[in-house]
Amino acid sequence: MRPVVLRGYTAFSREDAGRAGAALVRREGAVRVKRSTGIGGRGQFVVDDERALRDVLESVGEDELASVGIVLEQNLADVRTYSAADAHFEGFVASRRNYDVVRGTDHEGRPASGVLEQSWRVGGATGAELGAIAALRADPEVLRVRARCVELYGATTTAPPGAAIHYDGVDPRVGRLLKYTLVERHAHAR
């Protein structure tokens, strides 16, 4: 996996996170620190020295570190994110297709890429997965479905017709949020 993931660590104590982060700062320059409790890119910090790293780590409680950990990884610049694992990993087989591939440049300007959002938890694309399963079970003649889970932020967001709305309100951490799943049925058996 080393060639396709960003250089980094997961730590479950402040001491381990400090050692791992300091090693990455010395090697990579800027390091991305990701709280496991962060949602949709929130709870992430970019640090470029050990003092900034200590400040971020001090803001995370010991209980959170011990129970869910924290991720420290190489930070990329000029980033583009692709959500098409099949296009990047020919022959890749998995029950879940929620692998985001990020491509950018490292601190020396070299191209780098990695796999993000493994999301082996309820959340993320779970609504799309459940919507796809429901559509296939409801009509055994359907050969293929395309399902997507969408999060929209801001006061003027609306869901398209036929969407299954999971949340439509004000989240205390992110503000106005609309989350829905849209399922499209394709190709019936003959």
Description:
The mean pLDDT is 82. Strands 1-4-2-3 form a four-stranded antiparallel beta sheet. Strands 5-6-7 form a three-stranded antiparallel beta sheet, with no helix packed on it. It is built from five helices and ten strands, in the order βαββααββαββαβββ. It is of the alpha+beta class and 190 residues long. It has helices at residues 14-28, 50-58, 62-68, 85-88, 126-138, and strands spanning 8-11, 31-35, 44-47, 70-74, 77-82, 100-105, 111-116, 142-153, 164-171, 175-188. The longest helix is centred in the N-terminal third of the chain and has 15 residues, at 14-28. Helix 1 runs antiparallel to helix 2. Helix content is 25%, strand content 37%.
Characteristics of this structure?
single chain; 190 residues; alpha+beta; 4-stranded antiparallel sheet; 5 helices; 10 strands
Describe the protein's topology.
Elements: E1 8-11, H1 14-28, E2 31-35, E3 44-47, H2 50-58, H3 62-68, E4 70-74, E5 77-82, H4 85-88, E6 100-105, E7 111-116, H5 126-138, E8 142-153, E9 164-171, E10 175-188
Antiparallel strand pairs: 1-4, 2-3, 2-4, 5-6, 6-7, 8-10, 9-10
Helix pairs in contact: 1-2
Please give a quick description of this structure.
The protein is of the alpha+beta class and 190 residues long.
Please give the alpha-carbon distance between the first and last residues: 41 Å
Q: What is the beta-strand fraction?
A: 35-45%
Structural class: alpha+beta
The largest sheet, given as strand count, sense and whether it forms a barrel, is: 4 strands, antiparallel
Radius of gyration: 19 Å
Oligomer: single chain
Order of helices and strands: EHEEHHEEHEEHEEE
Measured as a percent range, the helix fraction is 25-40%
